[in-house]
Amino acid sequence: MKYVIVVGVMLSFEGMASEIASLETISVFGQNPLFSEHNTTSIIGSTQTISAEELAKSNALSLSQHMKNRLTSVHINDVQNNPFQPDVQYRGFTASPLLGLPQGISLYLNGIRFNEPFGNTVNWDLIPFAALESVALYSGSNPSFGQNTLGGALDMRVKNGFTFERNELDLQIASFGQRQATLQSGGNNGPWGYYVAINRLSEDGWRDFSNSDLKQLLTTLTYQGDTHHLELFVAANDNALTGNGAVPEDLQAAEGYDAVYTYPDKTENDHRMFALSSESALGNGFTLRANSYYRRNNIDTTNGDDSDYEECEFNNVVTLCEEEDDDVERVEFVGYAPEISFSDISDLDPDDIDGTLNQSATENKSYGLAVQLMHSKKTTYFEHEWVIGGGVDHADIDFISDTEFGILHNSTPEDDRSVSPTGFFDSESQVRLGVKTYEHYLYSGYSLRFGERWLFSISGRYNDSKISMHDRIDVGEGSLNGEHHFNRFNPALGVQYSISPDWDVSLSYSESSRMPSPAELSCADEDDPCKLPNGFVADPPLNKVVAKTIEASVDYHTDANTLTATLYRTKSVDDIIFQQAGVTQSEGYFINVDKTNRQGAELSYLYQQDNLVLGASYNYLDATFESEFITFSPNNPLGGGRQVEPGDTIPGQPQHQVKMHTSWTLNEVLTLGAEWLLSSSSYYRGDEANENKKLPSYAVANVYANYQVSESVQLSVRIDNAFDRQYNTFGTYGEPDEVLEDVHPEIDEAFFVGPGSPRRVTANVQVQF
């Protein structure tokens, strides 16, 4: 097995470690994926944490929903309109399940990287919400979290038999046909502990034809001795999700808020994950940590859409053709000779073939090993900590895609605009791609606390990665074959000064980078755009993305109050964006943009005292392009080929957000809570030049209540979007008349939106036994 070297870093530190060889007495200054616990402060950037208790009290549907309502600078784009397939935005960077988006946030589950290797995508449905023990969102370009940490990192830890010692059954029903059952069991006999979580959820979805089904299993087996800690972690998912995407604004007015444009748009995730982690106190302040893992995720997608193919005649024979740049190209069918026409193989009328089913199957297999040695020491005058580590990550990826000709049912108002398969496939659209990715990394960092006031940190990581791509259909010129190599050293440093026991100020600088994903490298030719996630072509290479973040913050903290004010700026070089280049939103190609800038301010306050919790935050985001380029955007209402100037706002990002939440425990049995979110307007995707109207601002309120019937039984109710507001979190451009001209000829404007969920009422009963 051949690997490429990657080198990486540990960052900030906060706390101290004893020289005594006992796991219970070891703490750390800072954080990286191998650390077993989350700290509430960090020298490099800022940290927002969520506990298992907070997650349970909120009764939120998913982790991303809770982050949207509570965490500063987090925003959701409802592109797919499935609650388990959100585009999560943080400070202008994205973690999304969609291949057509450049990813800029890294995710870790129990220290294991959770971004998919093919496109750095994030499948939020694989995260077992009930099994989470703690979640930490780290800001900035923190290189300790490896590649893709351009804007932040999300680190998630699951429960074990020492943090969860009971049996618990949670039964839930909700609006839109949602039914959920979750069983948790955990315990220990001293040194050995176990934990098991089983979850099953099904729902019809609030939009038409949008049912989903989730099956999740997670278990841990833990050994915890005086000086050694060992944990085996196993997770499995079998999920089927339907998210029917953006809809023309005028179609909502004509058919209702729950209308869909075309369908189906399905994703199936079959996921398995195994991980083994260890931690040993070696004595004299030394701690050794290691983990190894294997992940396999099979992702199948089916997307029903309208068609670029039309009926034509060649040599007096009726067949199908594709028009490209005024050239008409005859379709060749999979499994048939090139000269075979559609009328030779089917009794269907070619004029009725007005839909397509774009299908893909991705098998991601990834495995790796990481090792870290840390030393902590305290003397009379200072505390210091250093860490050195490294690891290997490897992925084998098989990607296949096909375009099947279909029949779009859109002739009458009673038709549902579904696409039926015909069994015939376009030969030119076939992709069979094998990919291998290799990474080796080493990292090192040092932190020093001098006296009671000063804390310094310096660290660095060198990344060296390789992507090997093998086209299983074409060879030679024009094929997808290629070898791509990327490397870079990323530094970070920070300083914190304690003005008093209650006040801290900190300043940090960090750099991170990411190599273009295999999906992006295979779809970067403006002369031959792809139909994501289906079509890939031989492309010019893309450059790696480099992000540099400077961040300053002031923190005030007492037993009851926490106040934080932050200023930050992240400059990215060779940022990768997706250029829409066809009538469908998924057709296009990736390009490097020379410079982008994301800067902003954050202010948050939290009060916690006895039976009352009050929280509020405000964030300002100025996310802009800082270099000129032409955005293709063929469906832009003003026409394609729009000129983007430095200072134009990156679409999909609200400049202002305000969030508030409260939780009030009235007595020993009743707790009431509320959340409120205000989001300002944002530009439609495809309007990078900022020339058209914006999505309007919106505000949403949620309320919830928990009632403790007895020591072992709790009843809960939650109402999301309590005032049933209709609002849109995402916008893009399309050609509605391609599908709707026969049934809604009046609908011809290009504005498509991703609507937010209407009022959702959830009730559940929790039983401990």
Radius of gyration from the CA trace?
Answer: 26 Å
CATH fold group: Maltoporin, Chain A
Class from helix and strand fractions: mainly beta
What is the count of structural domains?
Answer: 1
Helical content band: under 10%
Q: First CA to last CA: what distance?
A: 49 Å
The CATH class is identified as Mainly Beta
CATH superfamily label: TonB-dependent receptor, beta-barrel domain
CATH-level-2 architecture? Beta Barrel
**How many individual β-strands?**
42
**Total of helices:** 6
Mean pLDDT, to the nearest integer, reads: 89
Main sheet properties: 22 strands, antiparallel, barrel
Shape label: globular
Relative strand content: over 45%
Low-pLDDT segments: 1-30, 532-539
Structure characterization notes:
Pfam families: Plug (PF07715), TonB_dep_Rec_b-barrel (PF00593). It is a multi-pass membrane protein. One of its GO terms (molecular function) is siderophore uptake transmembrane transporter activity. This is TonB-dependent receptor. It is a single chain. With about 775 residues, the protein is mainly β. The protein has a single domain (about 25-210, about 225-250, about 265-305, about 355-769), classed as Maltoporin, Chain A, CATH 2.40.170.20. Helices cover about 5% and strands about 55% of the residues. The chain contains six helices and 42 strands. The two termini are about 50 Å apart.
